[in-house]
Design a protein that fits this description.
Elements (H helix, E strand, L loop, with lengths): L2 H29 L5 E5 L2 E8 L12 H24 L4 H27 L26 E6 L3 E4 L11 E4 L3 E2 L1 H16 L1 H12 L1
Antiparallel strand pairs: 1-2, 2-3, 3-6, 4-5
Helix pairs in contact: 1-3, 2-3, 3-4
Length: about 210
Amino acid sequence: MSRKTKLYLSAALFMSVLVTDQIIKFLVKTGMHLGQHIEITPWFHLAFVENNGMAFGWELIGGKLFLTLFRLVAVSFIGWFIYKEIGRRRPFGYIVCLTLIMAGAAGNIIDCLFYGLIFNDPPYPYTAQLVPWGMGYGDFLFGRVVDMFYFPLVEWDMPSWVPFYGGEHCIFFSPVFNFADAAISCGIVALILFYHKQTTASLSNEAS
């Protein structure tokens, strides 16, 4: 596969993930009220939540502004890195993994950059609406990330004799996430499983 073809396919994949992620988020944000929970199957739910933190709603480290700026720098670096790796004729599967990570990160960045400017923050049980630019619930860089996918695959009650957690109701898998988070996770897992040596060698070359 030629370098130009890899560039075009990587760009197409990036845009496909980004557009799909934003369409899903728009439909959820304008079609469900915050906190609404819809059971599709016993193991797959739609649960509309918003967060200021990392992927899967994990807690914020270093503050909202720091996280958003860090994401911008990270996406810029990954984009530059992908371009360099394509020039080095790396396997296309490796490029796909990196592109998934970059596209997922970019999808969540869009929420942070613009959602506070273009969406209102209605009270329960109303759904969000688009508003004139700058009239939304937050400032530039301070939008909230929209999550919706919830997979309570297994639930159980912890035995009472277990220290600290005895008697608690446990759920696997409990985090609520979005399409962008899924793209990041798939890219990282595939890199670890199939391209860990390639990744280590490439990063070592850049460091040297």
